[in-house]
Specification:
alpha+beta
Length: about 190
């Protein structure tokens, strides 16, 4: 089962429990966290590095409120905050201040768990503005992700990422120009 196949609104406690029962291991597209990042600098940097690595690679999810051993989810560890919206705003603020450029399209979902507690899922899209740099407390690093988790991008990977994104933008502009030219020349498959 992959939560990538579900809309964010479809993700529920049942979904999270199924990830656990299926042993859906961490990968390029999913990472489990027992707790939300606190106020410590180290925790904030780790959170920003995780988000940027996912956005710089394929997109995916961070799932908070799940225990994992060796990357395999073992149990729900519900978060004990009283205001999910306040926590989401706090995380959004960290992302806005700590990543350059900002990652567009990140979505949050708080998931009610028994006894008034929660899990929190962040859906992070693959970014067309990559690479995103962690720019927090004078830390200026770029991260990618593979099957083993997050890693620092080396110079070659960084160069490739920048050129790939520039190539995508150029290809989109060429496609648009070509289509507009065909419309003006009335070379369309359907008459307008």
């Amino acid at each position: 089962m992959s939560i990538l196949d579900l809309s964010l609104d479809e993700i529920s406690e049942t979904t999270i429990r199924r990830l656990i029962s299926d042993g859906y291991a961490e990968s390029k597209t999913i990472e489990y966290k027992r707790s939300l990042p606190g106020g410590a600098e180290r925790e904030k940097k780790e959170f920003l590095a995780d988000v940027s690595s996912i956005a710089n690679t394929m997109g995916g999810h961070l799932v908070f409120g799940v225990d994992a051993a060796a990357g395999v989810p073992t149990d729900v560890a519900p978060l004990t905050f009283t205001d999910p919206d306040a926590e989401i705003r706090r995380l959004q603020s960290m992302l806005e201040d700590g990543l350059q450029p900002r990652v567009p399209g990140i979505a949050f979902r708080s998931i009610p768990i028994a006894d008034g507690r929660f899990a929190l899922v962040l859906r992070i899209p693959r970014s067309w503005l990559a690479p995103h740099q962690v720019s927090f407390q004078k830390d200026r690093r770029f991260y990618g992700r593979n099957a083993n988790g997050r890693y620092l991008l080396d110079v070659t990977e960084l160069r490739t990422s920048i050129l790939r994104e520039r190539g995508e933008a150029d290809r989109i502009l060429r496609f648009r120009s070509d289509r507009l030219g065909r419309i003006l020349a009335e070379e369309m498959p359907v008459s307008l």
